[in-house]
Every structure is written in C-alpha cells, then in structure tokens.
Prior knowledge:
Blueprint (H helix, E strand, L loop, with lengths): L7 E3 L5 E8 L3 H9 L1 H7 L6 E8 L6 E8 L5 E12 L3 E8 L8 E10 L2 E9 L3 H9 L2 H24 L2
Antiparallel strand pairs: 1-2, 2-8, 3-4, 4-5, 5-6, 6-7, 7-8
Amino acid sequence: MKSAAPLQLTAPGEREIVMTRVLDAPRQLVFDALTKPELVRRWLLGPPGWSMPVCEIDLRVGGKYRYVWRQDSDGTEMGMGGVYREIVVPERLVTTERFDEAWYPGEAVGTLVLVEQRGRTTVTQTMRYESREARDAVLKSGMEKGVAASYDRLADLLAATRRGSTQS
C-alpha cells in the first residue's frame, strides 16, 4: 500500500534540496523505520535490483552511520556514511553525508523533520550541499527516482508493520 502523496522535491535555495513525503503511519513508527538497521535495510534501497549488505547505525550525537549498497546483478557497491549531529526522538535528525567515491564535491548536511497529524507523518528531508555545483550534480544524477522508490518501499513496510501490530 503506497501513500497517496508522492515524493515532492524542490530546490529552494542555491545549495539545498528539500524532499517531502507523507506517510500513513504515526511518527514514532516512521522514526523507528529511519533509525533501526533491521528496518532501514528493508526499504532504503533506491531502484529495484539493489540490496544493503552493510547498515550500521550508532544513534547518538557524535555517533556514526554507514550504508553500503550492492547492485545484485553485477556486485557493484556504493558506500556512504556520516555523523549524527542532532537527535530529537521522534521528530528530528541532523546528519552529515559523504560518499566513499564522491559523485558530488564535499560533504552534505541533512536535516530530517517528522511532523505527525491525525496518524499520518510528513517527512521533510533538507539536504544542504557545500556549493551550488554539488547541489546541481545531485539534481542531475537522477537520484529523485531512487529516493521515490525507497519511500514507496518505506510506505509498504510501514503499512505491513501496522497491519501486523493490529492483528492479535
């Protein structure tokens, strides 16, 4: 079951990308799906055909996270990680982001905000890049398709989790 609201992507400033998605689940459940490795590796996969053999999350200010994705068809891997700068459970995360093989210059800072209204959660991820050039490289990469696919998977995971928790 996919959320009725598709991913919205905007570039409001010279260095920012803002991605927003409404999910049909309470905020705490969404926060858990964003921060628990056993859940993250089930949805944060981008386009079909990728898996996540490494998903490490040390959820504390100053703690690190690391993700490695593998393209199942040929074994190509892509890794990235960062540091948690701010954590307000279950409403806000601020992290850094740097890819192992940088495809955009520098490091980005991501601010994730979760707002619940009537049992639905709006997820707003603001990425701030070191330069307009870096932001534009990300926009031109086609990342929107992978992000949208991941959020669709997240919506399905949340729906399945909610169904499971209501069945006794």
